[in-house]
Specification:
Largest sheet: 4 strands, mixed
Order of helices and strands: HHHHHEEHEE
Number of strands: 4
Low-confidence stretches: 68-88, 94-101
Structural class: alpha+beta
Strand order of the largest sheet: 1-2-3-4
Shape: elongated
Radius of gyration: 39 Å
Number of helices: 6
Helix content: 25-40%
């Protein structure tokens, strides 16, 4: 018979390793006291941060083309007497002559461009354009144009193909380095997007 407890012949258990009172191991070192901060270092880094932030703000304004002048010198007339005579001449003209011809809407300009340079499918799709915004204010950095139509549905609706054609036709008339045109339905639902 085998001895399951690994006892010697006498039946008494022998010493078992790792049993009994545990000996104390190496002690954990106490935590170190925090270092005292240097007030000069804190003040210096704070001032340095403010100076760097001001430089970044100044560089950002300069990159956007801003001026530090509060008055635009090109807006002031060079000869005050000449400007007063021009104003007097404007008042003497008939009201019909003073009215300027209204600029064509962006939607009409877009339709005219496609009518001149577009394919038959583009002409058919662009006929449903109601309003175009964001074309006149382009900066070639991030241009967002919106085309509002009288189409129905959404991205997967029956008029989604016409919306894709409109977005594609937009590149015929307008170019930008980083432009995005978005075509909306009559209800304001997104129908299509495209780069121009």
């Amino acid at each position: 018979m085998t001895n399951p407890y690994n006892q010697p012949h006498g039946g008494q258990p022998g010493p078992v390793p790792n049993w009994g009172p545990q000996q104390a191991g190496p002690a954990v070192p106490p935590p170190q006291a925090p270092k005292e901060s240097n007030p000069f270092k804190t003040t210096f880094l704070g001032c340095l941060g403010v100076i760097v932030a001001a430089l970044v703000l100044f560089a950002g304004c300069a990159a956007l083309g801003g001026t530090l002048s509060a008055v635009d010198p090109s807006a002031t007339p060079s000869d005050p007497a000449a400007s007063s005579t021009e104003a007097a001449e404007d008042e003497t003209q008939a009201p019909e002559a003073r009215r300027t011809k209204p600029a064509p809407s962006e939607a009409k300009a877009f339709k005219d461009c496609i009518k001149k340079d577009g394919t038959p499918a583009e002409r058919r799709a662009v006929a449903k354009v109601v309003k175009v915004t964001g074309v006149e204010t382009r900066n070639d950095i991030l241009d967002n144009a919106e085309v509002h139509t009288d189409l129905q549905g959404d991205l997967f609706g029956p008029d989604a193909n016409d919306a894709k054609i409109i977005a594609s036709a937009f590149t015929t008339c307008y170019q930008s380095d980083n432009g995005l045109v978005t075509v909306y339905s009559e209800d304001g639902e997104l129908l299509s997007t495209g780069n121009f």
